[in-house]
Amino acid sequence: MSVQLPTSESIAEAARVIREGGVVVMPTETVYGLACDALNERAVARVFELKGRPNENPLIVHIAGLDDLPKVAESWPPIVERLAERFWPGPLTMVLPKLPSVPLRTTGGLDTVAVRVPDHDVALVLIEESERPLAAPSANLFGRLSPTRAEDVDQELAARVPMVLDGGPCRIGLESTVLDLTSDEPRVLRPGSVSRADIQAVLGHPLGSAPPPAARKSPGLYQRHYAPRAAVVLVETLPSGRAGLTFADPCGPNQVRMPLDPRAYAAQLYNALQRLDALGVDEIRVVLPPRGEAWEAVHDRLRKASAS
Ligand code: TXA
Ligand code: MG
User: What ranges in the chain are assigned the alpha helix state H?
Assistant: First the structure.
């Protein structure tokens, strides 16, 4: 493995690895991704193998802009263009009917493909230079925390890829919002920093309030996910001496004070959990953040991290 700062040389090298069917770790604005050519079945199979990811859990395909959509999606409703205009590049992933050229290996056997344009120069240049749509799940072992810094990428995973591009801390820190646009009503499959209200403002009407989608529609919605090794327990207050995340003054090195702003909290969450996990504690207590829509994605990840 080599951790490299993004330069025109290192990005060109990463693009060469991808064109040859290899896998690299790349930064995005949300979390680091394990990137490969989305149209190369063998490369995609390697990504599943590296992560220990179940085959039926589809990957997100990263493109450089709306102009690239015809390379992966077969068709899309007109609203997609308005959503793209408003949120791309950015943390909104849209699920659309796939083209036959997108391997079922990439989409977990589904006839749909999840697509987004990352808001990160390194990722965008890498997509352009490799001249491929890039499949990139978060660069963690299955079920674990997504890395938001190059140094948070699991050491053994990093050792098994030729290159980790270090783009510094991710600005958003939580995975993208996943929006399904393949049924009558658009539906959020995974909350993220693009909120329901943001999406509704573009749609001009409320999002579908349909019951949770069938397993086939939301293959990635595992109960326990985004979790450190330590057990995560959600609490009202954090006693002194206990490891955890708090909004109050921390007592001791095993407590981390989190910001009361939802975006700042999201940007720090995975790194804070990872640092406490690295202390070897058995349990991480997390003081529950406020309720409200701005905190929805944070609550979703905390719920999944704490599920047994
Ligand atoms: O922010 C992100 O989305 C990051 C960065 C690297 O872009 N990627 C990411 O990928 O979080 P991953 O593989 O960890 O999560 C992909 C999610 C899963 O919940 C998966 O089930 C869902 O997207 N997904 C992918 N393709 C889908 C499809 N065709 N239909 C429904 N859900 C899909
Ligand atoms: Mg993931």
Answer: 8-19, 41-51, 79-87, 121-130, 155-159, 196-203, 262-278, 296-306
